[in-house]
């Protein structure tokens, strides 16, 4: 072709002809250079090379404004494009099939028809297949035609074969265009958006996303021959990015098709798709990956994200429910909630608020039901009011409606069947649940399935502390510490505490033995109601707290008055119990007005608090020292013979008003009932029940006594006076 044409029309430079290669300039519609492709001599070992930093676009964009809108011919390569221009045809060139992208179709929109030249080789097949697939994805609806020749490989070959004769070239190409075959592009909803995402994604350069999987073009550097390799048999894309608000860590949602053609999605740490080792975990979710293709799949995800960097939506994400910077999750529409790497949907709604409100109201005349319901509303206020965590355990006979009551309380927030858990779980599992629910009530059913009292008491301590165990991370360092601040509601056929429980179990737990329903029929009615109506009241309650800051102040003031009332009427009530009672009572009064529309609920609330307060242990019942003392006195009375001289197993000496135990015997008795001897002895010292000895200025709870000619070390304990014993028997 004439040098003048190549320089003037094609933008090439004459000085390039004196080099080992010519430079072909790729420019955009504003004549800006986007990239340079070097074309070497045909005899050279290297044929083509891109200059570093090149952004590949269709060849000829700077001429689009010159073209009319009747047609465009799409060809592979620059020389065929230049040949068509030379003979007066409108054309754009694609630098290899793999470089055709979704965004390139916007340049074709102005034309009434598009001709695609298909070369008679595998590369030509690939070019047409890619055009067809991408056209369907972008819903390109202009008429398209396949143009091919049995005689000529490409446009340049026609030009050369016909001796550069313009008239013959136009006649020949005209006949070929007249025989063009219409290209059927099937556009349906699934092809438009097969992964159901909210953005129009770009297929990364050199890849094919097909129903059969992900494929990548491999272009030979020497011959430019294109071969296709399989990345994975699973069609998969990145659907969204999720940024964790607590840690700023990033996760990604993968959307993919399983082997049975069903669509699925998972959320994983972004680090998993950034490592050829970690990415193997995706096999557990049905994605085809092993050690052979892991690097290919890893690179595909990188390329997909790069091609859609500004398109993939980023959404804030939390792994905890409850308060965050004044917002309440999951009631914030812009924050998605994850539980076990899946979208959490337990706090949804069903039925109507009015049906729930009217149905629940009839059961709130029962003190136990009303108290548990109010406690559920109390949970999200603990952190706002800086109140300590407490547990409420409703226990009693089977079929008394305990589970129905618990689920009714949880129906405030969502589907109670999804929210309730049982004691048939590990401590770690319940820790994770507590951390997830965070500011929402934790409902644990069926205490009797956990036969291990030690497990129960450890669980009470863990839940009341509001934080889990510090653990190391898989990749070194520490895992984030699990925390929560809420009310724990539990049920069972027996109490959580036992005679030998530590004081902490008693002080942290309000144990209530009251029937929440008059009969089983009422419990069934409650079940039927909350199966169809749930999730509304919690939303209304949070909205009320957020809209009126005085609500919290009013609850605080009412709580203080109720606290004073409880201690005045029940002076032996443990202070932590009184605080919990008062707070639940204050919330009951407030929600009775705001949620249930009552005008003067105070009297019902006080009746409820009195019924519960009468159920709670007093300070003396909780005192571990007094409980251990009663136990030891009972053992002395039941085993008097063990203190006699002729006893086979002697425990010590029984004196007038005191008992002297051999230390090992007493410690064994205490440990058999899970009492801590040191803790018990310290409590007895405070009460003046044990004699203290000093040896080398060191305090000891045992003393040395002479009995005849023998010295014995004993623990001396005062026994109750006779009149006290008689009184205790009445």
TrEMBL record:
UniProt superkingdom: Bacteria
Cch helix turn helix domain: residues covered: 623-721
UniProt domain DUF927: residue ranges: 209-479
Name of the molecule in the record: DUF927 domain-containing protein
Lineage: Bacteria, Bacillati, Bacillota, Bacillota incertae sedis, Caldicellulosiruptorales
């Amino acid at each position: 072709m004439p040098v003048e044409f190549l320089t003037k029309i094609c933008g090439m430079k004459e000085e390039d002809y004196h080099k080992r290669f010519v430079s072909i300039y790729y420019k955009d519609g504003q004549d800006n250079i986007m990239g340079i492709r070097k074309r070497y001599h045909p005899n050279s070992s290297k044929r083509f090379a891109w200059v570093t930093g090149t952004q590949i676009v269709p060849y000829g964009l700077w001429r689009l404004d010159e073209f009319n809108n009747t047609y465009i011919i799409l060809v592979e390569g620059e020389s065929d494009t230049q040949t068509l221009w030379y003979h007066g045809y409108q054309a754009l060139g694609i630098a290899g099939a793999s470089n055709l992208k979704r965004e390139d179709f916007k340049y074709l929109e102005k034309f009434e028809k598009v001709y695609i030249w298909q070369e008679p080789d595998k590369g030509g097949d690939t070019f047409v297949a890619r055009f067809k697939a991408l056209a369907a994805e972008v819903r390109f609806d202009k008429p398209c035609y396949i143009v091919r020749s049995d005689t000529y490989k490409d446009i340049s070959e026609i030009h050369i074969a016909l001796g550069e004769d313009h008239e013959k070239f136009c006649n020949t190409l005209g006949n070929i265009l007249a025989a063009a075959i219409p290209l059927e592009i099937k556009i349906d909803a699934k092809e438009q958006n097969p992964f159901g995402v909210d953005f129009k994604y770009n297929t990364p350069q050199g890849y094919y996303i097909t129903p059969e999987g992900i494929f990548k073009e491999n272009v030979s550097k020497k011959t430019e021959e294109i071969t296709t390799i399989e990345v994975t048999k699973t069609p998969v894309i990145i659907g969204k990015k999720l940024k964790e608000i607590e840690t700023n860590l990033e996760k990604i949602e993968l959307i993919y098709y399983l082997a049975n053609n069903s669509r699925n999605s998972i959320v994983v740490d972004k680090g998993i798709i950034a490592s050829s080792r970690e990415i193997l975990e995706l096999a557990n979710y049905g994605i085809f990956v092993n050690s052979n293709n892991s690097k290919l799949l890893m690179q595909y995800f990188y390329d997909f994200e790069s091609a859609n960097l500004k398109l993939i939506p980023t959404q804030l994400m939390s792994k905890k429910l409850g308060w965050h910077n004044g917002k309440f999750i999951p009631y914030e529409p812009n924050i998605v909630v994850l539980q076990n790497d899946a979208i959490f949907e337990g706090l949804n709604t069903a039925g109507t608020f009015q049906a729930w409100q009217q149905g629940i109201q009839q059961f709130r005349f029962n003190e136990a039901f009303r108290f548990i319901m109010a406690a559920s509303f109390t949970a999200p206020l603990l952190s706002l009011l800086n109140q300590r965590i407490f547990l409420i355990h409703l226990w009693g006979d089977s079929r008394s409606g305990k589970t129905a009551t618990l689920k009714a309380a949880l129906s405030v927030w969502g589907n109670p069947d999804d929210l309730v858990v049982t004691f048939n779980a590990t401590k770690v599992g319940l820790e994770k649940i507590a951390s997830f629910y965070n500011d929402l009530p934790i409902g644990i059913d069926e205490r009797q399935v956990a036969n291990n009292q030690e497990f129960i008491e450890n669980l009470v301590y863990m839940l009341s502390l509001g934080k889990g165990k510090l653990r190391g991370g898989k990749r070194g360092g520490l895992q984030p510490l699990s925390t929560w601040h809420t009310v724990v509601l539990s049920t069972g056929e027996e109490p959580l505490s036992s005679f030998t429980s530590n004081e902490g179990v008693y002080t942290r737990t309000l144990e209530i033995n009251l029937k929440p329903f008059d009969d089983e029929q009422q419990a069934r009615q409650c079940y039927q109601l909350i199966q169809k109506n749930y999730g509304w009241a919690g939303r209304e309650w949070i909205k009320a707290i957020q809209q009126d800051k005085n609500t919290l102040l009013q609850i605080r003031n009412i709580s203080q008055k109720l606290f004073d009332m409880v201690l005045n009427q029940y002076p032996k009530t443990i202070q932590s119990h009184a605080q919990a009672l008062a707070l639940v009572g204050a919330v009951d009064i407030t929600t009775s007005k705001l949620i249930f529309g009552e005008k003067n609920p105070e009297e019902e609330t006080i009746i409820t608090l009195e019924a519960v307060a009468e159920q709670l242990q007093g300070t003396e019942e909780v005192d571990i020292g007094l409980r251990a003392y009663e136990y030891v006195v009972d053992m002395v009375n039941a085993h008097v013979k063990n203190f006699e001289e002729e006893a086979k197993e002697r425990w010590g000496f029984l004196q007038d008003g005191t008992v002297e135990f051999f230390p090992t015997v007493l410690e064994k008795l205490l440990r058999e009932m899970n009492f801590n001897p040191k803790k018990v002895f310290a409590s007895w010292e405070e009460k003046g029940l044990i004699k203290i000895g000093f040896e080398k200025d060191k305090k000891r709870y045992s003393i040395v006594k002479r009995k005849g000619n023998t010295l014995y070390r004993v623990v001396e304990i005062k026994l109750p006076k006779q009149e006290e014993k008689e009184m205790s028997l009445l």
